[in-house]
Specification:
The protein has about 475 residues and is an alpha/beta fold. Helices cover about 40% and strands about 25% of the residues. It is globular.
Length: about 475
């Protein structure tokens, strides 16, 4: 019996796609096909938008307090199916099961945050702005929004946006990653159980054709995106050209600065998790270690020693510390960057190529890889590799480290490991990155804070999560009143 073909969810019903284009979805640990995903048509996008538009006013007029109760019901169902959801993430993406559990937990936390919508959507007012005249600012929903989701956090990322959008009174369409679509399809089974009014939430599987249809549809008000910088630029420009709001979280090249007074053992542990967690496939992964002065040699030795001990394998094995990368294409790209680093003259002090995982001959595995003597101008120091490849750059002092960060085109995250309050303040004050860690390897904001980003890591004005999300999914209407 072949793998199941995923369906779209439109107007409260599961609907088989009419597309003849269907892709296989692989388990990256063993290469097996676990599902098949259709690349839906523009007409199917039109159907989803029509369903979302039709129910918008009914949903918009639903009191926020009642909308928040749907969030509580959704949280309850996600808690009940927590482990099942986590295992689905691991099977389609490859990350180890503890990382998948963390991803599902972050998704739930965004549902919890959105449940506070009765207070989050409150406006403000002023009496007597002139004699006998009052002024009010009312916060209102906008219409139909959509999400173009990435493969690396297939369960979590749509929940940076969707819970806030619908809690605010908008209707929504999710386009999951065609590489990792199964967890989002499973989550929509739970959303179906919550029993939202038909059309409030819709799912359309697909690839670029679906994205273009959403971006150009006149009834779509805005788009949320997470993915690579080239695609983020394209989506931002296309959305803007079609009069839409856009928040596009894009690529990264994150630096981890280590000063001589850092607590070395704790620092190394944090760097390993940052660089090799989820096999380096996250926009917050540490990619470059900037080792300041005399810390360089002992830091390098410890990083190589500890990284070489990490166990690579199937993420569903509780003893495994790093899973496979997501696809054969991703594996080939990462191996190509390792070759490029060697060509550029970097020193490969830990080679993760050719790792063999017993019982998994067809998995997409590459072990932790570390380059030493990386120079800032190298391709491997500037491109987003998006894999378990860490570069070490020795720097003379703190100022040189900040200069390197300033010249990197991305601005997603940066971390400093130090015992100095002075350098910590200088770092967070001067570094132009959206998410800053001080003795933190993964500077991941919780649900009530925006997931920030600067430079080529973000296109737009308002980020996902927290108050930024509330502002993105609402309009402010000013009412000036005088009674005779």
């Amino acid at each position: 019996m072949g793998a199941i073909v995923l369906k779209n969810y439109i107007g409260g019903e599961w609907v088989a796609s009419q597309s003849s284009e269907i892709l296989d979805v692989h388990n990256p640990a063993n290469g097996e096909v676990i599902a098949r995903v259709p690349l839906s048509t523009a007409e199917e996008v039109n159907q989803a938008v029509a369903a979302a538009k039709e129910v918008f006013w009914e949903w918009r007029e639903t009191p926020p307090l009642i909308r928040s109760r749907y969030m509580f019901r959704l949280k309850e169902l996600m808690e009940e199916r927590f482990e099942e959801l986590a295992r689905t993430v691991t099977r389609e993406h490859g990350k180890i099961i503890d990382e998948a559990r963390g991803e599902v937990r972050r998704a739930i936390e965004n549902v919890e945050a959105a449940a506070g919508i009765p207070s989050l959507m409150m406006g403000y007012n002023a009496e007597d702005i002139a004699v006998g005249i009052d002024e009010d600012c009312v916060v209102q929903p906008v219409g139909v929004f959509c999400c173009v989701a990435p493969f690396n956090f297939p369960a979590m990322v749509p929940f940076w946006f969707m819970p806030y959008a619908i809690a605010c009174g908008n209707t929504y369409i999710v386009k999951p990653s065609e590489v990792c679509p199964t967890s989002q399809n499973q989550l929509f089974e739970l959303l179906d159980e919550v029993d939202f009014p038909p059309g409030v939430l819709n799912l359309v599987n697909g690839a670029k054709g679906v994205v273009d249809a959403l971006l150009t549809h006149p009834d779509v008000a805005g788009v949320s995106f997470v993915g690579s910088t080239p695609v983020g630029k394209y989506i931002y420009a296309t959305a803007a050209a079609n009069g839409k709001r856009a928040q596009c979280q894009a690529g990264a090249k994150n630096c981890l600065v280590v000063t001589p007074d850092a607590v070395l053992d704790r620092t190394v542990a944090a760097i390993l998790t940052s660089a090799f967690g989820t096999a380096g496939q996250r926009c917050l992964s540490g990619a470059l270690v900037l080792a300041v002065g005399e810390v360089y040699e002992p830091l390098k030795a410890l990083l190589v020693e500890e990284a070489s001990r990490l166990k690579v394998g199937d993420g569903l094995d509780d003893t495994v510390q790093m899973g496979p990368v997501v696809s054969r294409k991703a594996l080939d790209r990462i191996l190509g960057y390792i070759e490029k680093g060697l060509e550029e003259g970097a020193e490969l002090v830990l080679d993760g190529r050719g790792v063999q995982v017993e019982g998994y001959p067809n998995g997409y595995f590459v072990a932790p890889t570390i380059f030493d003597k990386v120079r800032p101008e190298m391709v491997i120091a500037r491109d987003e590799i998006f894999g378990p490849v860490l570069g070490i750059i020795p720097v003379a002092d703190f100022e040189e480290a900040l200069s390197i960060i300033a010249n990197i085109p991305y601005g997603n995250a940066a971390s400093l490991f130090t015992s100095s309050g002075k350098w910590a303040r200088e770092f967070k004050y001067r570094v132009r990155c959206g998410n800053i860690g001080i003795n933190i390897g993964i500077a991941a904001p919780i649900a009530t804070f925006p997931f920030s980003g600067m430079k080529n890591s973000f296109f737009g004005d308002l980020h996902g999560q927290g108050q930024d999300a509330i502002q993105f999914f609402t309009d402010r209407k000013v009412v000036i009143t005088r009674w005779f």
